[in-house]
Amino acid sequence: MNTSSIYDRLTEIFREVFDDDELEVIPALTADDVEEWDSLNHIRLVLSIEKGFGLRFSAAEVGGLKNVGEFVELIQSKAA
Amino acid sequence: MNPKSADIIVLGEHPRAADTLTLDELAEGMTASVPFLILQEEMDRFAELSGDFNPLHVNDEFARGKGFKGAVVYGALIVAKVSQLVGMRLPGRDAVWASVSLDFIRPLYVNEQAQVEGVVTEVWESTGMVKLKLVVRSAAGKVLSKGTAEVLLVRK
User: Fold this and answer.
1) ipTM of this predicted structure
2) Residue A67 φ/ψ, nearest 5 degrees
């Protein structure tokens, strides 16, 4: 799966989770940039990404992510 | 003096110490149940607590006029028993309840024995989220309510 298609699918997921059709998902995006990105929504986001991509992550893998770009790298490494 | 629930329910002694299932111990298919029955005293206390004095719940005659056998137990009191299941049994002490969805299919009446059952349907190691399927059954085995709950297992 190429990076562009991952971002396309992530954008759909982010917009669904945060109920924001204008949300732009870029590599530098973090929880600080999205008002609704609280701890519970973070969990819903991770679950939605796991379901959306058919992947499972460990707590350590998810806990170490600093931004969306790193999440995409994790998805790529898992989907490879 | 009115009896307390704990005096009547066979298995529902309302233990004060919660079970402490960890994420590693939880697995799909794991089940737990909480037997209960709702006393008139508890209905009265909930009416005061909630301010919901709808006659369907406080007036037997009115409820019978609507086609029920008597005053119908508040759905929120059934949810309260789900709270006991989640907070004390499955997964217990380290649970943080994130969501619940419950359909009320058949009425539950005062002093009618029932139980709420939970089945683990999903365990997400990445986030500590556990999903439960919920079923509330009468003593005769009829489904009174069913739904789902999401519970976060807090590690620290």
Assistant:
1) 0.76
2) -160, 180
For the segment A55-73, what is each residue's pLDDT rounded down to a tens digit? Answer: 999 999 998 899 999 999 9
Which pLDDT score, from 0 to 100, does residue B156 have?
63
Q: Which residues of A touch B126 (CB under 8 A)?
A: 46-47, 50, 56-59, 61-62
User: For the segment B49-90, what is each residue's pLDDT rounded down to a tens digit?
Assistant: 999 999 999 999 999 999 999 999 999 999 999 999 999 999
Question: Contacts of residue B97 in chain A, CB cutoff 8 Å?
Answer: none
CA-to-CA distance for B116 and B134, rounded, in angstroms?
A: 7
Best of B26, B121, B124, B155 to substitute, by most chain A Cβ atoms within 10 angstroms, is B124
B2-21 confidence digits (pLDDT tens)? 434 444 444 445 777 888 88
Name the residue among A34, A37, A59, A12 with its Cα closest to residue B129.
A59
Residues A36 and A14: their CA atoms lie apart, in Å, by 11
Substitution target in A39, A41, A43 with the highest count of B β-carbons within 10 Å is: A43
Hey, CA dihedral for A24, A54, B147, A42, is it positive or negative? negative
